[in-house]
Amino acid sequence: MPAVATRRIRGVVFDLWNTLAYNDHRPNPILALGDAFGVRGQPGWTKILERGMMQERLAGIEEGIAAISRLTGRRLDRGASQELARIWREACAHTRLFPEVPGILGRLSEQFRLGLLSNTQSFDLEFPGLSSLPFHSRLFSFEMGALKPEAGLFVRMAQQLELSPPELLMVGDNFQDDVMGAEAVGMQAVLIRRRGVPLSFQETHPDREPLTSLHPLPGFLGL
Q: What is the pLDDT of residue 199?
């Protein structure tokens, strides 16, 4: 486990995608969007899609596609847009929690305040198991018009949990957005590296020892 001052921790904040939940549909809908708009493979290409459809409340994937189109300046024909919407909707049925998530979060919630902080779209967000997770607070990028690693998101999460940033541990799969973003406001953070999950960030950081699941977390926090 990474070096963290566990005695100070009173709350744990989780990223959502590829930390708690994943989608194994083929093709992956985010990859399909990246290909359709010609951005996949560019440095930080997923952030382009996030800026397009995760910073405001939208009614559905059609509005999301239109927002990305405005941002990139690339217009898709009707058939391409309809196919992307079909892939997205079909993929929604494949979104699920990692198996250990409900049990681990249940244990943690007995002694820690839990938060969910994620860059995500406002539509098609509910899937089996998510609503029953014992979060004390949830905060999404589209609610604030900002994306992690924006400091304001982490500060607002701390306020909602009624804890100071040093009392919080952030757990996420994106080194820049989750770990560096949290540490910039005084939180502690650990990186998680899920194996074999599409779009799970795989940057190498030799000075960080990532988790491969949430299983070690309760013991790490003294439960």
A: 57
Nearest CA among 108, 132, 153 for reference residue 11:
108
Which two three-digit tokens encode residue 102? 């409900």
Quote the Cα angle for 192-5-134, to 5°.
55
Q: Are 58 and 64 in contact (CB under 8 A)?
A: yes
Q: Which token pair is 26?
A: 């083929």
Confidence of residue 44 (pLDDT cuts 50, 70, 90): confident
* Whole-number Å distance between alpha carbons of 97 and 213: 12
Please give the Cα distance from 101 to 133 (Å, whole number): 9
Rg (Cα) of the chain, in Å, rounded?
17
**Greatest CA separation for the chain:** 56
Long-range contacts of the stretch 68-76 (C-beta < 8 A, 24+): 68/33, 68/37, 69/37, 72/37, 72/38, 72/39, 72/48, 74/37, 74/38, 76/36, 76/37
Q: For strand 21-23 and strand 95-97, is the pairing parallel, antiparallel, or unpaired? A: antiparallel
Alpha carbon distance 185, 22 (integer Å): 27
